[in-house]
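so i finally got all the pieces together for this one. its two components total, 658 residues if u count the protein bits. some of the lines might not be protein, just check the labels. i wanna see the whole assembly predicted at once instead of chain by chain like last time, that was a mess tbh
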Amino acid sequence: MKKLINAPDAVLTESLAGFAAAHADIVLLGAEHKFVRRRDLRPGKVALISGGGSGHEPLHAGFVGRGMLDAACPGQVFTSPTPDQMVAAVEAVETGGGCLFIVKNYEGDVMNFQMAAEIAGKEVATVVTDDDVAVEKSTWSTGRRGVAGTLIVEKIVGAAAEQGAALSQLQALGEQVNGRTRSMGVALTSCIVPAAGKPTFALDENQMEMGVGIHGEPGRRRVALASADTIADEMVDAIVRDLAPRAGAEALLLVNGFGGTPTMELYLMVHSALRVLRGKGLRVSRFLTGSYVTSLEMAGCSITVSLLDDALMNLWDAPVHTAALRWGI
Amino acid sequence: MKKLINAPDAVLTESLAGFAAAHADIVLLGAEHKFVRRRDLRPGKVALISGGGSGHEPLHAGFVGRGMLDAACPGQVFTSPTPDQMVAAVEAVETGGGCLFIVKNYEGDVMNFQMAAEIAGKEVATVVTDDDVAVEKSTWSTGRRGVAGTLIVEKIVGAAAEQGAALSQLQALGEQVNGRTRSMGVALTSCIVPAAGKPTFALDENQMEMGVGIHGEPGRRRVALASADTIADEMVDAIVRDLAPRAGAEALLLVNGFGGTPTMELYLMVHSALRVLRGKGLRVSRFLTGSYVTSLEMAGCSITVSLLDDALMNLWDAPVHTAALRWGI
């Protein structure tokens, strides 16, 4: 196992300490590393809280800040955060407007956020994201998995919260965006969980996992390594078939690296995906390209398409100031 | 070779096409892919032009935009751009204020930018960056290599250019920042050049290359894989020994991933490097963490320390709007 670490059981706390030091203008680290919170809270604003297993950085802590999340609760690598983490986060960032939990659809996450909502003693609503079209159920999920599209939900709902929307409106908005967003991924190599010390799954030198999950969960099938164009054809086709957009619909394209794929290849995938999307009559008017929802050092990428109308585009374009996404500020 | 590509000889053009499409609000792609230029030029401003072999994305095209570069000339992977590329870029973006070339210290780059300066028919000055303390000469360099510190030079000189500084002032500023900036890297795995199809160098499962170059050039020595703290001790010590800062000096810390290293590990390295820097009496007041000057899919990172006074910090903080660095706009 080749990693820049000290000891497997110190990876999370040391990484969070580095993150909090590097972004001290934006975030504060909660006691016992239970959460990363936004430094400057706005009284009365609905508090947005997300979280999940670590190893997907910059998701979620990298999206804490003005215009996006108020707190993120990091579990151990690929392990759900515990309810006490979310309860502590609610106590720290709820300022009278209630809380919205944004939760990726994995059984442990859903259960632990649900328990936290019940014991937090504040008004809490929840949006569960499930944008992955690859499989209908998976190793740790009943129903579809929540993957890279989650950041689009967090960005758009975060912008609306900043503009003063109420909790019920934000919950409806989150569900709307999740419903307009689909993703699919491909892995060329496995990730290695530090505590395990060996690859989560094995791929031969000429194989890829089509439809992989962000923890290395199996996808649709294991096939021979294909060209970027062939991969884009299959992934975009699965996404668009499921989204069933009207002709000429406007879309945001997110090409997301899983951690071990260079930027050069991600932009090449943008080129491939764009060709397919345009061929299907979609107008891509917003782009995000980079490694935002990762699986440790896994090589591969996901493609996410989100159908955004003018109002949603405006919320996407609204100012944001986090470690990983920043514009307009 | 596991890459998200179509054909090795199409990697650069397809990746540039994806980049230009994704960032059409910021950049334009020159004819025959000779350069990536800033869309909106400012008449009379000194034009900043950089470039070099591809495979280091987002360097340099990702730094084209307001507050940073006016154009970047991409060579083939790990291959210098040809003089006609820089001449075409000068023609496209010089608006009466002259041109500053920012060139990493590799023989091919230095020679080709020099030839371009001679035939461009405009006033051109050049800053050569050589921030890598690992070795005094290397495979493709006479003298030290220019590595991740180059982006700090580009950012600070770019801000000063935006504020109206003259060509001679910008050249002096670039040399000043380069002189205050040092870097060193470590590789855990090799990169694979698409046209070669195999690793540039071989490392055993328990080995790392200490002092590696950004093309996989040999560093100081090949040693057993060490902890993040041990790596940070050696790299920061080499950097600070060479910089010889006064006690209490203020610094910017850049922890740069080489392409295959997850964000989680980069922040862990921030934690390790910060401990060493503070132990040596430096005050780290600015941070940049991410994969900005990469070596395709190489796993590993570099640490860069730049000693910035108040004036330089202000230029670092000044607004920038590029694909890879954005704040204040």
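Helices of chain A lie at 11-22, 83-93, 107-119, 150-162, 167-179, 228-243, 263-279, 310-317.
Residues 263-279 of chain A form the longest helix (17 residues).
anyway lmk what u think
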